[in-house]
Amino acid sequence: MDALLTEDERAILASVDGFASRHLPPDEVRRRDREHQPPYDLLPAMGEAGFFALPVPDDHGGLGRSWREVALVQERLGWHGYMAASIYNRVVGFGVMSVLTYGSPAQKRDLLPGLLSGSFFMALALTEPGAGSDAGALKTRARRTAGGYVISGSKIWISDAEGARFLLTAARTGDAAKGSDGITLFLVPSDAPGVTLSPLAKVGNNAMPSFEVGFADVEVGDDAVIGEVGGGFRHLMSTLHYSRASMAATVTGAAQAALDGVMSHARERQQFGKPIGSFQVLAHRLADLQTRVDLSRLMVRHLATLIARGLPCKREAAQAKVVATETLRDVADQGMQIMASAGYAADSDIQRFWRDSRLYTFGEGTNEILRDGMARELGLTGRQPS
Ligand SMILES: Cc1cc2nc3c(=O)[nH]c(=O)nc-3n(C[C@H](O)[C@H](O)[C@H](O)COP(=O)(O)OP(=O)(O)OC[C@H]3O[C@@H](n4cnc5c(N)ncnc54)[C@H](O)[C@@H]3O)c2cc1C
C-alpha cells in the first residue's frame, strides 16, 4: 500500500523511523511500559522533527502540510510504540487542532509556538464519574465571578493530566441542569490552586497514566475560556473527527506491529516438524488478519484525504475508528492464541498489545455509540446520543 505514497510522504515515514530508532527502539518501548514511564521527554524531539507543525498553516508558524502526512506519522508512531503516538495525538488532536479551530487570535499567538515545539501539551478533561458516554450530563460547574470563573466538580480517567500544562476542561456555565447546551471549555493550568490529581490503577497503557481530577473552587480568568461561552460541546464535536482519525491511524500501526510479531513467531515456531504458520488453520487466520489491517489502513488513508480536502467525514471517522480498533483487538486476541505460551509470558509484546487494545473500542467514544451515530446518518434511527 505504501507503493502509492508520494516522495514527500515517504520522507515523513523515514523521518518517523529515524526518530524512533534514536528514541524508541523496541527495548525502550518495553522498558517504558514495564516502568510506567510516559514519553513526555520525547516531545521536544518530535517538535524539532516538525511532526506537530504538519497540519498548521505557515501564517501560524506551521509547515502547512496535509492531514495525510499527520496520519502517516500517527500510523508509523503507532507501529513503533503506541505510547509515543498517543502523546503525539494529544498534542495535535486536543491541543493544536482545538486552538486552531476555536481558539482566539491571542490564544493562537500564545499557545501554538509552545505546542509546535513540544514544550507542553493539554489533556482533555471531559469524562466524569456520572457522565461517560452521556458526556452532556456533566456536572462540573463554572460560576461567574467579577474577573472570571470559579470551577468546581470532578473528572475521571483523564489521560496524562499530570504531565499536561493545561486541562482542556468542559464545565457547565449555563442554567440547564443537563444537556449539551451551556457547556464551556476552559484551559485550566494543571497546577492551579484547588486542582487535585489522583492516579488510577488500570489494566494497560501503562505509559499513559490516568487520573481522577478534582476542582475545588478553582479560580480562572476570562482568558481561560477557549471558544464561545456556552458553545463548548459544539466545539468538541467540531474537532472529534481529528481525534477519531488519530486513534484509527495509530491503532492501525499498532495492529500491524502486533501482527508482524505474531507472523514472525508463526514462521519460526516448529511443531510436528513444520512451522506452525504453515498449518492451514493458522495460515488462513493470519491472512484474514492482515486483510483486516490493510482494510483499516485504506479507511484511515481515505479519511485523511477527506480531512485534508476539508470534506465532511463524520461517518467515515466513526467507521475508521470502529474498524481499526476492533481489528487491533482481534489481532491481539488471536495473536495470543497463535503464540500460546510464548504470548502469555509477561515479557512478550503481544501481551502488551492485548492489554492495551481493550481500551480503544470504548475510548474516544464507545463503538456502540459510534454505531448509533452511523445508523442515524444512514437515516435508520432518529435522534440518539452523539
Ligand atoms: C484509560 C482511559 C483513558 C481515558 N482518557 C480520557 C481522557 O483523556 N479524557 C476524558 O475526558 N475521558 C477519558 N476516558 C474516558 C472514556 O472516554 C470513557 O470511558 C468512555 O467515554 C465511556 O464512558 P464510560 O466508561 O463511563 O462507559 P459508559 O458510558 O458507562 O458505558 C458503558 C457501556 O454502555 C454502553 N452504552 C452507553 N450508552 C449507550 C447507548 N445509548 N446505547 C448503546 N450502548 C450504550 C457503552 O457503549 C458501554 O459499552 C478514558 C478512559 C479510560 C479507561
UniProtKB/TrEMBL annotation:
**Family annotation (InterPro entries):** Acyl-CoA_DH_CS (IPR006089), Acyl-CoA_Oxase/DH_mid-dom (IPR006091), Acyl-CoA_Oxase/DH_mid-dom_sf (IPR046373), AcylCo_DH-like_C (IPR036250), AcylCo_DH/oxidase_C (IPR009075), AcylCoA_DH/ox_N (IPR013786), AcylCoA_DH/ox_N_sf (IPR037069), AcylCoA_DH/oxidase_NM_dom_sf (IPR009100)
The record places domain Acyl-CoA dehydrogenase/oxidase C-terminal at 230-378
Q: Which UniProt keywords apply?
A: FAD, Flavoprotein, Oxidoreductase
**Its Gene Ontology molecular function terms?**
acyl-CoA dehydrogenase activity; flavin adenine dinucleotide binding
Domain (Acyl-CoA oxidase/dehydrogenase middle): residue spans on this chain: 123-218
- The organism sits in which domain of life? Bacteria
Q: Name one Pfam family in it.
A: Acyl-CoA_dh_1
Q: Which PROSITE patterns match?
A: ACYL_COA_DH_1 (PS00072)
Q: Which residues form the Acyl-CoA dehydrogenase/oxidase N-terminal domain?
A: 6-118
Cofactor(s) it depends on = FAD
Similarity comment: Belongs to the acyl-CoA dehydrogenase family.
What the entry lists under PANTHER family is as follows:
ACYL-COA DEHYDROGENASE, ISOVALERYL-COA DEHYDROGENASE, MITOCHONDRIAL-RELATED
The protein's name in its UniProt record: Alkylation response protein AidB-like acyl-CoA dehydrogenase
